[in-house]
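Worked example 3 (structure in, sequence out).
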């Protein structure tokens, strides 16, 4: 019996991080947590490419372009959408999630979804290094695990 696990391995994979600048108090904290955790998992600064976009709606387009570029082996998308007084929040959340999901499924590299969708700024801050942890660090661990799994699958060919 063969088993493929999410073991974390030392690797020389290149990681792209696409981060939305809107709600930067939150997204900067997500980015810092992501980079720190990647470095803890044997990814060097030279292996990390950070790309800034204006907001969450722009994430999918740039993630898709980066996925097709051959510059990276995996991508982490970071953003923060915080509910306001209009239903704009619902559209942004839905379209961002849908776009990133399509890129992950149809693209050349795995994509981790690190976009916070919260009811308030306080909730977003809590999930960007506050009392609820840092979604960016979770995505960093996740992309390393996905690259490990995909590498193991490729080795079986």
């Amino acid at each position: 019996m063969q088993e493929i696990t999410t073991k974390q391995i030392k690797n020389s994979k290149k990681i792209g991080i696409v981060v939305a600048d809107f709600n930067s108090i939150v997204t900067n904290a997500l980015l810092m947590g992501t980079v720190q955790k990647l470095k803890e998992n044997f990814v060097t600064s030279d292996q990390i490419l950070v790309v800034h976009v204006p907001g969450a709606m722009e994430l999918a387009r740039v993630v898709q372009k980066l996925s097709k570029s051959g510059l990276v082996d995996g991508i982490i998308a970071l953003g923060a959408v915080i509910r306001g007084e209009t239903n704009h929040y619902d559209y942004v959340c839905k379209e961002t999630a849908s776009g990133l999901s399509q890129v992950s499924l149809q693209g050349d590299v795995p994509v981790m979804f690190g976009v916070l969708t919260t009811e308030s700024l306080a909730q977003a801050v809590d999930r960007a290094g506050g009392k609820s942890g840092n979604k960016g660090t979770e995505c960093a661990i996740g992309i390393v695990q996905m690259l490990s799994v995909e590498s193991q699958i490729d080795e079986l060919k």
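Notes: Strands lie at 15-20, 48-53, 74-82, 111-118, 128-130, 133-134. The chain has one domain: 20-156.
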